[in-house]
Design brief:
This protein is mainly alpha-helical and about 70 residues long. Helices cover about 75% and strands about 5% of the residues.
Amino acid sequence: MDSDQFKTIAKRLDVIISLLLQSVEVDGRKLSLRSQIKHLSEMGLRPIEIAGVLGKNPGYINKELVAIRRES
């Protein structure tokens, strides 16, 4: 597998993960973006990877992770 194929597969997996997270419901409500970030972080993804999956800026993800840690 060459680098371009790997990047294409990784991008498609990011899209699948994002779509799955958006379809999850808890108590009849969709997960908030903060909850999605929290779950991805708990699964071991780094902020830069979470940003790629959710299509957000890594700085925003870091800010949210700090707030999540403060809440715990």
